[in-house]
Here is the input.
Amino acid sequence: MASKTTDAVEFLKEDHEKVKQLFRQFESAGEIDQKEEIADQIDLALRVHSMIEEEVLYPAFKDVDSELTAESFEEHGVVEELLNELATMDLEEEQFEAKFKVMQENVEHHIEEEETGMFPKCPQMPGYASLGQKLLERKDQLMSELEGKEDSERATKGDPATMQASEKSEKVMAGESITPPQRPRRAPSRRRSSRAKSSSGRSRSGK
Here is the structure.
């Protein structure tokens, strides 16, 4: 369901609640196919949420609290690295649930820190009133680009995500943009009912 608010903090809190709800659904799901689909939704939600914060919120927030901004980038890098590792694993592998749980705990810790430490300070930012609309528009763009892709395609390439997070943080602190050039909107592809991969990716079905 699309958000009905354009208040930046409330908009981001709605995203947080959606992710926490997905975590609960993953824990209670009994069938492998269900877990696969929910894990895919979590991967997409976390990647998009991280990107809109890094590209829209953090550059505006750095002048309010630069230390907290830098810390938030680093926490995103840890979560993204775990997502990248999970994207290469079969859900039935012994270590998948353990690594997934570590990722979940990192996300929940990050959410708590943002909602208690960062969000109360956000209204101090110049231009706060228009920030929510910017977050909403960028989220729509990213969802259009990423929603039809497999999690292995969404995984970041090149240097470890933790290193990339540090580099993005340094750019933002220097006043540089980390938003990539706009690409044409792609037609949505049909999502497969499970996360079975072709030979170019992983297969969580174990077949």
Q: What stands out?
A: The chain has a mean pLDDT of 86.
